Structure formats: structure tokens, C-alpha cells
Task: structure prediction
Amino acid sequence: MNDIASALKPKSPSNEMMGLFNKTLAKYSLSEIAAHLGLNTGTVNRWTKTNNVPKSYKIDLARMLITSHSNQLPDSLKKELEKFYHNNTEREKDQFYTHSSVAKQCWEKFKRIATKTLNIDLAQYTFIEPAAGGGVFYKLLPSQRRIGIDIEPKHPAISKQDYLCWRPPKNKNKYIVIGNPPFGLRGHLALQFINYSYDFADVVGFILPQLFNSDGKGVPAKRVRGYQLAHTSKLQSNSFNYPDGKNVDVSAIFQVWTKINTHKIASKRIQTCRDYIKVYSLSDGGTPSSTRNKAMLDKCDVYLPSTCFDEMRPYDNFEKLPHRRGYGVVILKNYARIKKIFTHNDWGKTAFHSTNGALNLRTSLINEVIINHGFHDS
Result:
């Protein structure tokens, strides 16, 4: 027990993270840690080689340490974890709240999808808001069939618990989970909330980071366990605020995932533009693990950042890309017209905002711009 308490004591950021990671590694294998965090095993293995663990995983690693002791955990250590969590900033905890009008829009949309599309009788269900905060979704749910949970509740009816360490009562109730979970780095924490819900919830309706609407390799949506996607809609960028009331400019979507009545989900025809462009993910960090598609670094027609904090715009060569990382596009036909699209498109509007304020592009968004201009495969 003392090893966990010591791992939670404040240290320098790098020592703190490595201390937490090493304590967790003593309890779990690399593959178990990777699975819990929603990461590739190679990513976690790289932390051991570089002695560098991103701060974004601090609370996740602490939670793994705590749950490894299950019911043996003394009250003193529970208080240590609460203190550890409380001492992190709202940004570190990914703690921001949904505007009430946005929550109502999502709730109405969820009811329509559940009843009209999936043919679900909502009267049979108890609803869980797993990161309830001030209860913005909780207040909309049926008063006799709702459970609100949050590790730092801001509403008297919300139970003070960590959802990822909680289980619903052992009864015959059927459950639906709905709300705005914390996103985490690259959506890893939101993914944990979805996958954790699968054990007891038939349907999940979550506000999620834009990454869940991407079709790239290794994106969170491709690591969702068991559920099928029934609905996606974009939210306006000014949908959230921090606990102090300051607005958060972050791109998000509302998705409904289900494991029942999946045959009711209409298949969508996906348009492509493979005949017109090919997009390469490029990087040259000087090591094999930080280099991608090196042969294409100087062979593309246009280059775009994958992430930046300044102006999101096209570049004419790889070396000008921020951090020498991003996308290279080869135009396969209709060169002049498509090059003009890349030059004149407002890529700042195409990109999505993450919670740290960065602008982000993905291959699917680049393709979407070309498709929306009429260049798509037959």
C-alpha cells in the first residue's frame, strides 16, 4: 500500500510520471496497461525506453494502481487519490461542462435515434450519466430512473465516485449511459468510458472528440469494444465551458453506440476520392519510430500540418511544415483545379480544435474537402 501512496506524492513532473508508470508496471503487463489506456503496446513500450510518459496519463495510471488493490484499499489511500486528483487543473483533468442548451439538443437527438431508428423502448431503461459534473444531462433524465456519478460532483444529487471503478447495482435493470465524458489525450479516456460501459449498458450516447469521426489508422472509433455506431452529428464549437465559466473552444461530436438492434442501422455509402489524390502521413524525427513515409518527403504536390497552434495552411515543401510532421498530398489528376482547391480552402475552418487549443487535420477531412468540390470516385 505504501508504494501507491508514495507514487501519488508530488514530485517533479518527469519523476512523478515515471514513478507512477513503474509502480503500475509492477502490477500489470505492458499489454494490460496499453489495453486499459486504449493504446498500442508499442507506444507503452516506448515509454520504458525513453523514460518519458505523457502527463495526460497521470490520473489513468493512478487509477490502475488503486483498482489493482480493489476492496483492500484503506480510507487513507482513497483520500490520497482524491487529493491527487483534486490538485490537478481542470485542463489536466479534461474537466469542462456542456452548455445546458447543447445537452438538451443531444438528449432530444438521442431519444429520436433510440426510438425511431433503433426501435428501443426507453421506458424500460435506467439512465446513467457517468461524468455528471453539474448535472446538465442528469436533470434531463427521467427522475425515477437515473444515476449520476462524478469524481468531483458539482450537484447534490450526483454520487461522488469514479465511474471507471464503479458498477451498477446487481439487479435486472437495463442501462443506457449518456453524457459528456472527459476526452483525454487523443480521446483515450472517452474510449475507456465507452468500453467500460459495454459490460452493463445496451446503448451509449456520448459527446466525443472529433477524432471519433475519423477513419484513420488506430483512431479511437476503431477500438470501441462490441458496440456499433448508430449516429454521428457535429456540435457547434462553443458548446462547453470550464468550471469557472470560461468558454472552451473545442470541436466535438455527439455519437450513439449500440449493441442491440444493430440490424436497424442503415448502411451508409462512403464516397472516396482515390482516383484524384493520395494522402501520405509524413514525419522525419531522426529515428525509425518517429519517421513515416520518408521516400515521399520531397515528392508531394502540397503539404499540410497534422497539428499546429498557429495558422493552419498549405505549404509547398515538407521542410516548412511545423515540427516537420504532417500530410503530403499527391494529386493524381485534374492537377490545376485540385491544386487551386488546396490553395484557397480555409484549412483553419476544416481543422478541428482539441482541448489544448491545437488545430488538427486528419486524412478524412482532407478527402472531404476534395469530395465536397465534386471530385469523387464513381
